[in-house]
Design a protein that fits this description.
Elements lengths: L8 E4 L8 H11 L3 E4 L3 H6 L9 H11 L4 E3 L10 H13 L4 E4 L14 H25 L6 E6 L12 H21 L4 E7 L10 H8 L10 H12 L10 E3 L7
Parallel strand pairs: 1-2, 1-4, 2-3, 4-5, 5-6, 6-7
Helix pairs in contact: 1-8, 4-5, 5-6
């Protein structure tokens, strides 16, 4: 698959941990010939106590890929829930490389949020990061894309449309909105040669589960393992490539046959 994304300029958000899906996406896209612009926000990972949260990870990661002569550009860290930052990110990416014709919105805000724990602040944190920022970045992406270029937007949802997620309701609600955004923007942007699709990556081993919880999910996987960031990344690569020109408005469940 080397070279399948040659001459593509792709922005990937949500890249700040070694075990995360974002890092896997950046690696696969860069190895496939794309120029990849990388954005993350490490303070979020620290706030939710990921074991591999490390403020220095993203710069080291980009340096390692550059040492392999891959074309990866690091953008300034920013909190996408803050007004103005989402649009500024697209503008910065376009200024760095001239234009962006691929957008992979992998960023997410997710905390434990069953009924009884909801607050306006917690709900808004989910909505501002997962929904508002996504919509504004899609709009800004469309505005900067040259008329002669094909655009590809890849979004991420979760499994809330296939079964309840009662311990993460605020997150589930925000991720259900991503499905609607996918379908509405695919219809709105199709005439401008922009395809919009959405991935549900299923249970992915990014370090958030361990022990009995990890094993319980593993037993529900026909192939006997959790998904990996690279599993999601390969699907992103396809959707960002010209092989996916006729696919838009789709929500693709890439769950390895997960049995709920």
């Amino acid at each position: 698959m080397q070279g399948i994304l040659k001459d593509k300029h792709i922005l990937v958000t949500g890249v700040s941990r070694g075990q995360g899906i974002g890092a896997g996406i950046v690696r696969v896209l860069a190895e496939s010939g794309a120029t990849v612009l990388v954005h993350g926000y490490a303070p979020y990972d620290k706030s939710v106590a990921y074991e591999d949260a490390d403020a220095s990870f993203i710069s080291q990661f980009v340096s390692e890929l550059k040492d392999r002569e891959l074309d990866v550009r690091l953008l300034d860290e920013s909190d996408l829930s803050i007004e103005g930052n989402a649009v500024r990110l697209i503008e910065a990416a376009a200024q760095t490389i001239g234009y962006v014709d691929g957008l992979v919105l992998n960023h997410a805000y997710s905390t434990h949020s069953p009924i009884g724990s909801w607050t306006q602040v917690n709900i808004n944190n989910h909505l501002h990061t997962n929904v508002t920022a996504t919509m504004l970045m899609i709009q800004a992406f469309h505005a900067q894309l040259p008329n002669e270029k094909r655009g590809a937007i890849t979004l991420f949802t979760s499994g809330q449309y296939l079964g309840p997620m009662t311990s993460e309701i605020a997150y589930a609600v925000s991720k259900d909105a991503i499905i609607s955004i996918t379908k509405q923007t695919a219809a709105a942007l199709g005439a401008d040669n922009i395809q919009v699709n959405c991935i549900n990556p299923g249970p992915t081993d990014t370090g958030y589960a361990s022990g009995n919880d990890f094993e319980a999910v593993r037993k529900k996987m026909p192939m006997g393992r959790w998904g990996t960031p690279e599993d999601a990344a390969r699907l992103v690569r396809f959707l960002q490539s010209d092989d996916a020109l006729w696919i838009t408005g789709e929500v693709i469940a890439s769950e390895g046959g997960f049995r709920r």
